[in-house]
Amino acid sequence: MQQKTDNNIITIERLSHAFSGKTVLQDINLSIGKGEFVTILGPSGCGKTTLMRLIAGFLKVSEGKIAIAGQDVTETPPHLRPVNTVFQRYALFPHLNVFNNVAFGLNLKKLPKDVILKKVKKVLKMVVMTDYEERDVDSLSGGQQQRVAIARAIVNEPEVLLLDEPLAALDLKMRKDMQMEIKAMHKKLGISFVYITHDQEEALTLSDRIVVMREGVIQQIGSPIEIYNEPANAFVADFIGESNILNGVMIKDSLVEFAGHQFECVDKDFAPNEPVEVVIRPEDIYIFELSEAAQFSGKVTSCIFKGVHYEMMVTTPEGYEFLIQDYRNFEPGHTVGLRVKPFDIQVMKKERHCNTFKGTVVDKTHVRFLGTPFECADTHSLAGGTEVRVKVEFGDVNLQDNQEDGMLSGVVSFILYKGNHYHLTILTGNNEHIFVDTNDVWDDADCIGISISPESILIETI
Amino acid sequence: MLFLAFFVLVPMALIVFYAFTTIEGTFTFANIQKFWIHPEAMQTFLYSVVVALITTVICILIGYPAAYILSKMESRKAKLLVILFILPMWINFLIRTLATVALFDFLKIPLGEGALIFGMVYNFLPFMIYPIYNILQKTDQNLIEAAQDLGANPRQVFFKTIFPLSIPGITSGIIMVFMPVISTFAIAELLTINNIKLFGTTLQENIYNGTWNYGAALSLVMLLFIGITVVLNGEGSSKAAEEGNLI
Fold first, then answer.
1. Which of A120, A372, A390, B21 allows an S-S link to A357, with CB 3.0 to 4.6 Å?
2. Are residues A22 and A147 in the same domain?
3. Distance between CA atoms of A381 and B219, rounded to whole angstroms?
4. How far is A27 from chain B (nearest CA, A)?
5. Domain limits at A201?
């Protein structure tokens, strides 16, 4: 067999997965290096657990390839893969004591008794559970069960350790301690860790590299610093840490306009006057008594003590709201000066400028898209059945509380605050996305009715 | 509480009272002694235990695979099948057994020991399948995946994880099959044309013939025997009662 010389322990190519007709993962390409600590991060339902289960072999791959240690394992059953898993709810065997839980894998390999004893003792020492060998697993606390689960996996000396939200069930203090222990363990073992979590802080603390996922698609892969400082899009910026995300216009190279002011920045290679999204971290806005040095000003509307810093909301005269973190505090009502340094402004290409759908003309006054016929003011007198492109501005989509009041219904799947309005992503009944700009406050997972006025539906021939 | 007092405690007290008294109502150990020295009663008792053991073993051998297959099925299908398994239980078991007798007659199979075991298994199999199915179906999928993950092939997954985890279901099934088999009399009477006597039959005869005191003593012996088995099952049975009971 050909010797693989590359340093990747896991290579995932063009991996897709569908479950009962619904795409859960879409075109995943990912390489994980030997000894690397990679975190797969995303909100619930983003497909991260599915990805882990595909790597472990619990799910069958619909499309694509997974290779572990140079071997194609796409069709290999889980018990023959050189990976071990730490399960979210530990999954310890209730009919076995701590020792036999840890020795489970070694017993299956039919290793000599004394070797098993030595190995089990060694890993139990490593997870600081030495005196618990004879204990019933049900009598252990959550943290202790977690330690046994880790010991049970690493005793088999896998090439890759998969950890599926291992700390999700622990309380905050315990979680912080375990994070440090897991990191230390990773250093000591020198094997690759693939860590699944929805906790961005955990991901930033632990990882060499972070893979941010959303709705089955990888959004960004990068080191914690890259992901935090240079988020690839508004979703990543919003999900990792806190941020101010605003719509802006790139006037020319190194000059961007947002919130009604022009700012010097370090980004280039945009078309003149290209609409963009701007990300500024709350700690990167300087707040001070109004003076000459201010680029813009605002009025403090709230100020909360957060331990290390104060968190303030500041509203500018132009009507934009900024989240600002600073060691100093300014009382609500106070007028302050604000300033942002050029390299603290992260400019991102806009993913989309308006809603675009595939549609078909029904008759002179109606067009069908999103599986629903809409009344349309101007169909350009196209014949019924003509395929067209339908465009609707984000601001022209109306949302109703009652699903029945809309022409079609949907669920709010993602909310982005853009300083002076909300940008919502709505998942419609037939699994398509519609994006909406609104000033009304909606909650995640709200069920809503959607309607669009006939004048707002613009039709273009393809 | 009142219900328990009337229908459990009072009858129990009466059994104990009758077992230790003569017809005239004076205290005696004679009834119990009679059981130990009377070879016929003792023999019937041992024979009943053997029949119950055989029935239980056959029920496990048929019931476990059946329950396993059911638990692997899509849940809607499985539920329907479980109902089909339990459906005969809704018919009075005397009528069911009489029908079995008729069937054996029709097929020209002689009644006797074989027919007796068949009748027992037929009647009690659902009581074995259901608790095992119940516990298998509730087996944590994560544990099966954990075993696979640690290198267990499908066979090892079964013998190292699924089977040990289902033992409380088996225990529950045993309790629900073994005990009633010892004490049934109708099945034995009908399927062996009264040729084979089980302990239940002896009990029934004594009560029927008016020797209540001796009958009560025999009942008490059986009760103790059942009690001892349950206690020996210990932890397992109490867990089984929680997790795998029929009702």
1. A390
2. yes
3. 94
4. 25
5. 8-234
